[in-house]
Amino acid sequence: MTRPVRHSLVAPAIALTLVGAGVGAAPIASAATPTPPPTVAQATLIAAGNTHTVVVGADGRPYGTGSNGTGQITGTDNPKTTLTPMTGLPSGVHAAAVSAEFEHSLVLGDDGIPYATGRNGHGQLTDEDEENPDPQRTTLTPMVGLPSGVSATAAAAGANYSLVLGDDGVAYGTGYGSNGQITGNAIRTYTLTPMELPPDVRAVAIAASVGSHSLVLGDDGIAYGTGYNGYGQLTGTQTTKTTLTPLTGLPDGVEAIAIDAGQFHSLVLGDDGVAYGTGDNRHGELTGEETELDTLTPLAGLPSGVDAVAISAGNFTSVVLGSDGIAYGTGSSDDGRLTGDGSRDTLTPLAGVPSVTGPIAQISAGSNTTLLLGRNGVVYGTGRNDKGQLTGEPTLEPQRSLKPLSGQPIVRTSSARITGTRKVGRLLTARGGTWLPSGAKVDYRWYRGGKPITSATHRTYRLVRADWKKRIKVRITATLPGSSDATTSAPTARVRLVLKNTKRPKIRGKKKVGKRLKATKGRWNATPTRVAYRWYRGKKKIRGAKGGKRVYRVRKADAGKKLRVRVTAKAPYTTAARATSKKVKIRRR
């Protein structure tokens, strides 16, 4: 129920989503400032459990949120409402895979050792002292039982039991086994014990359920199952199987390449790009109208031309990742785990994935939540949040849309830009600069010619005279505890000034025919670098009195008329402006 993409939880899955590692690095704190808790430095792996969630960051650390009553996300704080680092991995060891189920979690270290934390009442975490086993653990602790020289390559947590895959091609089980889910008839074991496949078949993937059945994928392309089969989840009609037995129903020539186990149903991904299911279908988790299937049957609903590339089985739900990068779900969504409300009986896109997320990289269906990991490194969740498993204050009201989990680094969804008219006196507005998760503190700083403008720290800025001829830009910074990010706009073109006349031009000289009149340019709010003059007799332009000359010799035709001059002024990065003198009357003689 908790496996990302290929549900054997193998280490290579990390390579899927290494996006911008280090973006969420915490700032250095002064001695007087407490260091904020680390944030997930871009998620790389996800695991949805029963009422808790485990995420691996690009820093290789596992983080947990949600119910912690048995130490399933380490420590004793219960619940945890934001992604919080899990403890116990040795120094220098990074998480290569994670699995979460019921009341315990498994973390596969890149040292080849499986580590476990949480409830251990049935030996699901293993214990060397079978007579007096620890009932629970609150820190990641190595599991015992793998043969000397064998390293773990995958781990899967089930309901009170665990599976581990060794690099020797053997699947090992520990914990509760009364229904044959770890093969055999032992009620419980406290050490990793081999689960036998047919001779010459090596196990390449494992899947444990929140019910009591297990799946193992062989290198022969066959999915094998053991445990409870009351709904046909292992195919066939035998109620219980205590040995790994092939699941039936794949078309001739189709091999299984991935597996996953829900509570009462199983999913198998074929190399033909089709997701197949068997078992309980009362909620539509296998699509179609049949309430129960006992043979592998194709799930319906993917668009034409879209292949299934990953599968994840939840509690009464199935989630399939399409080759188009879209996550599709079917089954019960009464608590919003498939987004929205109600049940569905065909694969339907999960709604509300932000466009910035891009194609979905991983999927994980839990008991009552669904997690998606975007290629931008952000984890989104939907469904129940009564224990903080989706982060935030626990609430009985289900979350019916995909939202980022808190405790992740800020991821920018749009860059800063400036809108408005670049003229002195006009208002500029900072646009863009949006981030996920929401709730970040956002600060603005405006710059003139590369230098910060005093007191210009709001989303809008009104241009002043000092901005004339300068370029303006804005820097927007978003901050969450332990994480910050900033975006700076491109600088504007140089700010322009509306050129205005502050004192009208005048006409000086004797107002007589044959005399020279001289025009002043008047006064302006900026010094003009170019001035042109146009003389008028009444309302008409005087022919021959053009060319921008400020001196005009009065003509006979002007006698008894009124003259005026219009001045056009220009300056760099201004709008051209005009001003007209008062009229003067020319004497008749």
UniProtKB/TrEMBL annotation:
<dbReference type="GO" id="GO:0005085">
    <property type="term" value="F:guanyl-nucleotide exchange factor activity"/>
</dbReference>
<feature type="signal peptide">
    <location>
        <begin position="1"/>
        <end position="31"/>
    </location>
</feature>
<dbReference type="InterPro" id="IPR000408">
    <property type="entry name" value="Reg_chr_condens"/>
</dbReference>
<dbReference type="InterPro" id="IPR058923">
    <property type="entry name" value="RCC1-like_dom"/>
</dbReference>
<dbReference type="GO" id="GO:0005737">
    <property type="term" value="C:cytoplasm"/>
</dbReference>
<keyword id="KW-0732">Signal</keyword>
<dbReference type="Pfam" id="PF13540">
    <property type="entry name" value="RCC1_2"/>
</dbReference>
<dbReference type="Pfam" id="PF25390">
    <property type="entry name" value="WD40_RLD"/>
</dbReference>
<keyword id="KW-0344">Guanine-nucleotide releasing factor</keyword>
<dbReference type="InterPro" id="IPR009091">
    <property type="entry name" value="RCC1/BLIP-II"/>
</dbReference>
<dbReference type="InterPro" id="IPR051553">
    <property type="entry name" value="Ran_GTPase-activating"/>
</dbReference>
<protein>
    <submittedName>
        <fullName>Alpha-tubulin suppressor-like RCC1 family protein</fullName>
    </submittedName>
</protein>
<keyword id="KW-0677">Repeat</keyword>
<feature type="region of interest" description="Disordered">
    <location>
        <begin position="117"/>
        <end position="136"/>
    </location>
</feature>
<feature type="domain" description="RCC1-like">
    <location>
        <begin position="42"/>
        <end position="349"/>
    </location>
</feature>
